[in-house]
Amino acid sequence: MRRQILVGILMAFNLITPAFAHEDMDIVVTKAWVAVLPPVQSTTAAYMTIENKGKDKEVLISVSSPTAAAAEIHQMSMDGGMMKMAMLKSLTIPAKGKVVLAQGGYHIMLINLVKPLKKGDIVPIYLKFDCGCTVEVKATVGNDPDQSSSDSSMSGMSGMSGMKM
User: Fold this and answer.
1) CATH architecture of the domain with residue range 2-144
2) Residue 98 φ then ψ, to 5°
3) Which of 12, 30, 56, 70 is 20 to 30 A removed from 137 (C-alpha atoms)?
């Protein structure tokens, strides 16, 4: 009983977001959040940790969200001293491994938001895997839960002026 209450509390605060999409698939998503931006911005980024507890790799092939006209898997990287952002066709989550979507690395771009997002809003994001399974993630609009900073900007993308797309 105490364990069920604790899991309920953690889920309510989005500290854990278990999402088992299919009996043959053991994907768990945690720390899902969406960057807060000024209301005039129409694009933002979502971050999370995707863990594969299964014995086979899982391949994320697409993402979507009703809060944006489009959603894409992206990766930031350095190329000749310049920050580069590229759209990915897929992202492999290794068996018994995890992939962290974080500022300055892998992330999900939410493009042409249907309305401005406010801190505390919950954004549904659907992760589709090559097995045909879909995992629903509920990401909270706010700051990186792993950082104590109160900065609400996309600080990991501050070098975007020199970015190649």
Assistant:
1) Sandwich (2.60)
2) -145, 160
3) 56
